[in-house]
Specification:
The chain is an all-alpha fold and about 290 residues long. The protein is built from 11 helices and no strands.
Length: about 290
């Protein structure tokens, strides 16, 4: 209970603030309609109306939960109005971007650690790349993908997701591959180990804790990249596309339901990566964290 109570307290406070904000923001419409009708609504009538408006400025928590229930449980997975269907599309993009980000991040880290030229040339550009807004790069990535005949929005969306996810992996792996001290390196050189043997038998095992630590951050970044990619590429499918559609057509319920569906999916991804990390740590003889 000592661990749960602080969390419950924060949740309760958030719900209270959310409901209060819903009443405040949605009451404008209620008072406007009452003024046109020449009536003066009571506070209870204002609260009742703000809790059930079809297109509120800020939907109340129970309205978002109801919309999320309708679009997940009560809709067929094959329906394009189903958040499960849209979530699967976003998940597919996320996983492709996550895998591509890992490959790129690990590869760049290996080049940076093993090559002085790579360290001096790649590391600064990798850092600079993260200062460029992804929404500015997204249209360029889409145009270039179409120019080379990608033929599908999955490719540019996966590249956008990988663009955000590779950096945490690269930074962590640079630190991990560089973690063996001089005594360990000198010992292997004394045994006549080749550079490749030093890399695979010392540097790579030493980097695994750093690698595992970067995965949760990387998968979260890949998910954000997938959603941003859907928003920036005018995609018609995916949770990001549902948010955009809800915003463009004045459907706040759709927008908020998609937002919470995205948050739930992101949490599932992070916990899944954490569970896989613990399994791999046990298999490698490490201590789970």
């Amino acid at each position: 209970m000592k661990n749960i109570m602080p969390i419950l307290t924060v949740v309760v406070v958030l719900f209270v603030v959310w409901y209060a904000a819903s009443i405040k923001m949605n009451s404008t419409w209620t008072y406007d309609q009452a003024e046109r009708a020449g009536t003066e609504p009571s506070f209870s009538e204002v609260v009742s109306d703000t809790m059930q408006q079809a297109r509120p400025l800020l939907p109340a928590p129970h309205q978002v939960a109801s919309e999320l229930w309708k679009t997940t449980v009560q809709k067929k997975i094959t329906s394009k109005r189903s958040m499960v269907y849209q979530g699967i599309i976003t998940l597919k993009t996320t996983l492709w971007g996550f895998v591509l980000g890992i490959v790129v991040g690990v590869s760049l880290a290996a080049i940076i650690v093993l090559s002085r030229v790579g360290r001096l040339s790649l590391m600064p550009w990798a850092i600079i790349s993260q200062t460029i807004p992804i929404v500015a790069l997204a249209p360029i990535i889409v145009v270039l993908s179409n120019a080379v005949g990608a033929g599908s929005l999955l490719v540019p969306k996966a590249i956008i997701a990988a663009y955000l996810s590779f950096f945490p992996v690269m930074v962590s792996m640079v630190k991990g591959l560089s973690s063996p001290d001089d005594m360990q390196l000198d010992l292997l050189r004394t045994y006549g180990a080749k550079p490749s043997a030093v890399f695979w038998k010392l540097r790579v095992p030493s980097s695994m804790p750093y690698f595992f630590a970067s995965l949760k951050v990387s998968v979260a970044a890949a998910f954000v990249g997938a959603v941003v990619g859907e928003l920036s590429t005018s995609a018609i499918s995916g949770l990001g596309a549902r948010m955009l559609i809800g915003s463009q057509f004045g459907e706040p319920m759709i927008m908020w339901a998609a937002l919470f569906a995205a948050a739930i999916l992101a949490a599932i991804l992070i916990f899944t990566v954490g569970a896989i990390e613990k399994i791999l740590r046990r298999a490698m003889g490490g201590r789970p964290v």
